[in-house]
What does this fold into?
Amino acid sequence: MPLIEVRHANSYDPTQRERIIAALTAAYSEASGAPAEKVWVILDEVQRDSWGAGGASLQARDAGGTK
Amino acid sequence: MPLIEVRHANSYDPTQRERIIAALTAAYSEASGAPAEKVWVILDEVQRDSWGAGGASLQARDAGGTK
Amino acid sequence: MPLIEVRHANSYDPTQRERIIAALTAAYSEASGAPAEKVWVILDEVQRDSWGAGGASLQARDAGGTK
Amino acid sequence: MPLIEVRHANSYDPTQRERIIAALTAAYSEASGAPAEKVWVILDEVQRDSWGAGGASLQARDAGGTK
Amino acid sequence: MPLIEVRHANSYDPTQRERIIAALTAAYSEASGAPAEKVWVILDEVQRDSWGAGGASLQARDAGGTK
Amino acid sequence: MPLIEVRHANSYDPTQRERIIAALTAAYSEASGAPAEKVWVILDEVQRDSWGAGGASLQARDAGGTK
It folds into this structure.
């Protein structure tokens, strides 16, 4: 009964979410031997002004060319 | 100072949230001996299109009978 | 399929762990209406030198009377 | 590549978020020796009706003087 | 810069860990379009006496046939 | 009552842990205005064979020059 939790800053539409859930479940099941029907996946979108990398938010980096 | 964090896919109204917080705090305190006033609870609702089980989102399972 | 995750600084023996799992599951199920057999609980013990409160670890507070 | 995740019940505007990200990154880098450009920060705001302390939500405590 | 975190109750040897990391990274990258070199994976093994399902730990279920 | 949780792959001795807890608490308190005595910090060390970046564990990257 593994739990896979993803934090991501990009937005995904429902079709992409479905595809990501299916892909992670299949990949984990195949690599670990755990039955796919026992795998849980949680997708957790983080807003770009709430995700910092290197001391600045992704939003600030998008806007300002911090990199 | 234990921290209890709940991820759930069902929506709860404020009354239910209050009841869940009280119930988990009391149960934990009684079972562990930790003082109730030191227990923190965080409720974190996950949207049904962002929670996968067995390779499909709960939303898709609700809609389509994946199972 | 709610997931209840507990971070705690006290150590619990297997009997206490079993009791905490049972108590949280029953409390959550009763308060939320979710079926108990779908509830997951994860207990995650944090070492006292790795848990800070008010700027000092619990270990330092135990030793030094920071409070 | 450390990851610093903050759960907080107060709301912060974009300027405050930027300041918190910068401050935590600098503090961690200086205290640990890890390069600042490798530090990630995630800010996760929890609603006051979803954060319990001592068996009641912060919202209920705000309203009712539980403390 | 997505972060994929896995909680699992089975033990994996280093070869399996490497395979799981590679598989999840590739699957996520392909399904989401995120570049693989930006994907982080954290594997977090939970002891069987610390993971509850349906009110009993996995260890108790292993031993006792709770199911 | 903010909670700051750090996942890190480097090992820190007790003195470093104490310093990191103090530094993060002070930085957060100053940047956010939250009282330092209400800030919690949890340090969570992840083994290098359990932390993947770009599809390989840090351990494999250390050993093999994946980068």
In short: Residues 26 and 36 of chain D are 6 Å apart (CA to CA). The first strand of chain D starts at residue 3 and ends at 8.
